[in-house]
Amino acid sequence: KGASSQHVRNWSLAPGGLAETVVRVPFTSTPDAAKWANEAPKVWLDRTVDFWRGVLAGAARIEVPCRKATEALRAAHVCQLIANDHGVLKGGEGFYDEFYIRDGAYQLMELEEAGLWDAARKAVERYLRSQRPNGRFESQANQFDANGQAVWALWQYAKITGDREWLAKAYPQMRRAVAWTEKARRTAPRDSPFAGVLPIAPADGEYLWDAKHHIVGYDLWNLRGMLCTADAAAILGRADHYKELLDEASGYAAAIDAAWKRTGLAHFPPSWEKEGTHWGNTETLWPTELFDCNDPRVTALIHHARKVHGGGFLEGTIRWLGAKDAIHPYMSAYTTMASLARGEHEQVVEDFYWYLLHSTAAHAFPEGIFYKRRFAWSDTIPHVTGASNYALMLRHMLVHERGEELHLLAAVPDGWLADGKEIRIENLPTHFGPMGLCTRGTASGLQVEFTPPKRTPPKRIVLHLPESRRPVGAVPGVELAIRSPQTKPWDFATVVKLYSAEAAALFQPIPGLVEFPLDVPPAPDACLPLDLKPAANTDPFTAPFGVSKPGKFLFTGMPVGRKTVAGVPFEIIDPAKNSGRGLVVLHSPRAPKDRPWPTQVEIPVRAQGKRLFFLGNVHGWASDDPGKGPWGAVAEYVIRYADGQQQVVPLITGRTADEWTASPSAAEAAVGLRGDPWHLNVLGVTLRPVAIDSILFRDLGTPAAPVLAGVTVEK
Description:
The protein is of the alpha+beta class. Helix content is 29%, strand content 19%. The protein has 13 helices and 26 strands.
């Protein structure tokens, strides 16, 4: 953007100080936007705040004695609503800006449990429209978990609303989905090692895209859908269907048992072939219990996920083996919820705070994280399923349905029950109707106010408390379950301290890096753009990464010639005047084999300068490339001084470089030029007062293909 549209605010704040400013950020650059130019931004900010406060005022209320936890819950509600496109729940932005039955089922549950009924009613209708002619529910091609998850989502909506009439309308579609499962699981012959389970299919969660594996999570979800449909039959008085479905589910469970025995493993693996990374196989006891809580296979799976899989939990989070050095907070939630069902309250509390730690200051959650770089992959913040799983975890720690039972405070930090602390729950939807609960810690014990659900009273209500926090007086209709005290005082400060001590070292600063926007832009007559024509090897307008006919993936609209970018004059090569070569692109093993790009190029300088600026600093082929070496870099500039010394400037994804078609995310570079779908960054570094012989632009042997478009020396 031009200098006239930039807003710069500077403050000097003491620790704990506060400053505020409000600026306009136009949603569109069309001529119609001019009519908003004189609008007061503070007025619109206040309107926005009032709108969201009004929306949340009608939701269920949950407040706990942890400000971060309470505010993250409210933010999760807002995240669901922002991603709800006229009733179609989306997973997020960019790659996730589409409907996923898998993610959306948990998002829908979050809306229901938040009491955001208008959004939930609209969202559940999208599920009814996602059934194929053969009966199978699908949103992503041939991923079979969606079939069971859609059926569960319909059942869950009926259970939490108590709407029997709606269930009667949805029930035929649930039956058709189960009929597909019944037929599909009989595809293999009876003497096959995979008799009775679903056929092979691709799976992105398990990172088994080849469609050559039998996915365990697909069987678990379709079994769950079958059992949910049986329960729906019972609710609707269809005793004949109920028995038929239970018999089918019993046979399905037996087939799963037989497939598990053939693996020779103590736990359920990601696929019956024992390959893949943990995903749907961890959803054994959540969102409904498919097995006994003490089933040794469930116990073994929890142990395997926490202690063995890829090295076990790291930063309180499960490893995801589809990428190097990756952890996956929201997928950890399924193991946490299994621990919740098993009564492992302190483990759940620990997991909860680790989950909360992996969020931003604005309470947004990622999907997966490259923990060594502390970087969320694929620009997935805010990830909507990450937010929904957080909200579900907190809600079920406080209020958890187990069949016909209602469990209160099954897994909360002991500190939330201490003197002077209060937990407040109001108008909370449950399978039994709305309820309320308020606890206050006092010197004489815990004051408990409980408003039980009345629509369909549970057969049993259990309040879980440590011995030291017994209720002051009886709580009518509630059984008291005394649990063990927690051995560690879990709170947010505790987990932050643990993280600071155990996590990968903080990024070391890059010496001499220039901050943008520039306080003092270089004078044009003091700038020496370097000649990159001999090193250029690709045409940005026809095949920027050597791929012919790449569709929209071109640098369309990129200017050429002498251009000032982020305050710095650069010479951008016109490929029409350089034999079709305009960019310098280094090697990637994923590039076309007939385009052997160099692993390094040398750029002559033979001049002394104050600062050096690079235009490019993007890469293709690997958006989340974790890099190599101590910096975790994909490439580097090596500045060779005349006295023999060198200065290295690493290109690190998320810091000094990023993926060329993704949203800019390089925190220590400036976005210089942008088009659709491309962008180029500007990176600057302060130089030693010694002449430079040359600059080496060097690839570090990673999948990413780094790009350079211009270099300028400020004399």
